[in-house]
Specification:
Elements: E1 3-4, H1 6-19, E2 24-32, E3 36-44, E4 52-56, E5 59-63, H2 65-71, E6 75-81, E7 84-90, E8 96-97, E9 104-105
Parallel strand pairs: 1-6, 2-5
Antiparallel strand pairs: 2-3, 4-5, 6-7, 8-9
């Protein structure tokens, strides 16, 4: 399961509304950075038949089966820290991350 906080869900919903179309958001991982994996987010217009799907605070979340192994239990928040704002990922599978926070290990 993937959970979006109310603030994260509102951010995604607002963006989808401004965009004018879309089913929800896809969360995945890709090989990157010095620790091995990085989160990938993209808007979904047509879900893949193999995607796992969840609904969290009114937003549909899609995950490909290969990424689900690394993301099961993920909690996404949308935070403001100083002048920066963006998604914050709390992943129970994560064992470490690189110093810059760009990538993680499981």
């Amino acid at each position: 399961m993937i959970e979006l906080t109310e603030r994260a869900a509102k951010h995604v919903s607002d963006f989808l509304e401004n965009r004018g179309h879309g089913e929800g958001i896809r969360v995945g991982v890709r090989t990157a950075g010095c620790s091995g994996l990085a989160y990938v987010l993209e808007f979904v217009d047509d879900p893949e038949p193999t995607d796992d799907s969840f609904e969290s605070n009114g937003v549909k979340v899609f995950v490909d089966p290969k990424s689900m192994v690394y993301l099961n239990g993920l909690r996404m928040d949308y935070v403001t820290e100083g002048l920066n704002e963006g998604f914050k990922f709390t992943n129970p599978n994560q064992k470490g991350e690189c110093g810059c926070g760009e990538s993680f290990t499981v």
